[in-house]
Amino acid sequence: MSVGLQDHKTKLEEQAKGKADLSYSYFLAKTSTTEAPSPRKLTEEEIRAQQEVEREKSQLGGSLWNHAGTFEERNVSKWAQDRLKDLLAGCSAGGVTITEVSSVIGDANIWMVRGKKRHGFSFEISMSWKMEAAGGISVSGTLKIPNADVEDLDDLTLEPSVTKSGRDKEEADALTAVKKLKGPLEKVLSGFLREFKAQ
């Protein structure tokens, strides 16, 4: 053994004497660089216990690798966007019907934080609507929800506009009718939130 290595080992042994048995210095002084713990085969009981832990983790929604249940994030934006398009299409109130959901832009995430699930989403939703006004006149337009957020589903902001109308009166009536979609849209989004939380 070289002099430098001998001095180093002696210093570690001295430090270990002054510290608790579980200190890093104690462990290092008692371990040789050539020793390595030998692997052992798990018993059937240990394997079953490990499988049970993994099954419980997967039921909670966490990944099998995250045994400690620390922070984990899962992006489910694609599923949420597709599901919202399905749920919102055909929604109607006051003679106005959503004919198409043209875009759902934003994110939806599920977080595992210290073993507990948290859900969050925020979307900007653009839709097309149509209304048959008095006298057989068809009025259509767009409707935007600038911020459909998990925290504010009971107070949506609607931004309607008319793209095709016959006369000013029908246009004004249609814009008033579109605002009646607020309640049904909030109901659809609340249903979506319940589905989302079941993920």
Automatic annotation (TrEMBL):
Gene3D superfamilies: Activator of Hsp90 ATPase Aha1, N-terminal domain. It comes from the Eukaryota. Residues 73-199 form the Activator of Hsp90 ATPase AHSA1-like N-terminal domain. One of its GO terms (biological process) is protein folding. GO terms for molecular function: ATPase activator activity; protein-folding chaperone binding. GO terms for cellular component: cytosol. Pfam families: Aha1_N (PF09229). InterPro entries: Aha1 (IPR036338), AHSA1-like_N (IPR015310). Belongs to the AHA1 family. This is Activator of Hsp90 ATPase AHSA1-like N-terminal domain-containing protein.
